[in-house]
Amino acid sequence: MKQFEDIVDTKYVTRKDTNWLWIASFNLWTTRQCQTNFNRDDPIVKECGSDQLFIGDAADNNTDCSGTWVENTIGLKERVFTAPDTECNPYRDGICRPGTEMFAEDLAARDTTNSYCPVFEGWSEPKLKFCVQRWREFTGGSGGLLVKEGTATPFEKDDGETCPGEFMPDDEVQSPIPISSSPTLYVNELFTHEDTVDMIRITRAICDNNDEIHCFMRGIPFDFWEQYLTVNKNLALLSGVAVAVGFVVATVFLFLELNPASADFGSKDKAVASLCGGLLIAFTIVMCLVPVIGLSMLLNVNLTAFSNMSFVLSVSFATE
């Protein structure tokens, strides 16, 4: 949740409430804040976490899917509370709550001046799997969680007939959870290549480069513009390799092709001549690459995988 909120707070990512994140929605479902019991299709079926009894091992036997509230020590967002008659706010922001907005049963002896967030803790892996499956079944499922194939119940119409290809969200979740996804995020203010590269660097510093909880960003800006993060380094590497390969190939080729003009022209002289020729050709390659790349930059040609390939192709002309 902290990573999600930090990414949403960056310059280029549009605003998104934390409760759209599946783990945030699940955490709320485990508390008294769950509103599903007040708006359910079947009034007989209770659908909140506290209503779901897990029958498991000795540690979790006969315990429900109830979470708890802990003090907000890492700066998670609080939910926005506005008076309906005075202000309209299209966003609710976070899922944490100030003590003044807590149920008395949840607040207990806690300080009302602090902020608190819903969490689940101390659960075994089987209990977490059970509770997540029940949450998905009642809420429709989200988070892109991986499920076991063929475990979902076919969807039935009111007349009892099944709909081919449609299933209920009661699949068996893979456990431990190997991967999940966040809701779709949108970016804006990407007017130049530099803006997009800056956006990638900022979001990856929060997400991809976090060693504790690994996540990764994906989408068109990342799939295409990622090349601009390393394009300068790749160009330098390609140019260096091209010059080095040109030198080696030219030296070997000259050594095999040079024939002694006299008996005084021995193998040592042949090797020296080949090295000199290889160095001259390598120098010619450099003298070609520098103006080709330099003039392209002066003419505002963007460095991309395509332009890099063209620059390297110029090596063949120089070698010839």
Describe the structure.
- With 320 residues, the chain is mainly alpha-helical.
- It folds into two domains: 2-191, no CATH class; 227-319, no CATH class.
- It has nine helices and seven strands, in the order H-H-E-E-E-E-H-E-H-E-E-H-H-H-H-H.
- It has helices at 2-8, 22-29, 104-107, 125-139, 193-206, 220-225, 227-257, 267-298, 305-319, and strands at 53-54, 63-64, 68-71, 97-98, 115-119, 154-156, 162-167.
- The strands form three sheets. Strands 3-5-4 form a three-stranded antiparallel sheet. Strands 1-2 form a two-stranded antiparallel sheet.
- Helix 7 (227-257) runs antiparallel to helix 8 (267-298), helix 7 (227-257) packs parallel to helix 9 (305-319) and helix 8 packs antiparallel against helix 9.
- The longest helix is centred in the C-terminal third of the chain and has 32 residues, at 267-298.
- The mean pLDDT is 86.
How would you summarize what this structure contains?
With 320 residues, this protein is mainly alpha-helical. The two termini are 59 Å apart. The chain has helices at 2-8, 22-29, 104-107, 125-139, 193-206, 220-225, 227-257, 267-298, 305-319; strands spanning 53-54, 63-64, 68-71, 97-98, 115-119, 154-156, 162-167.
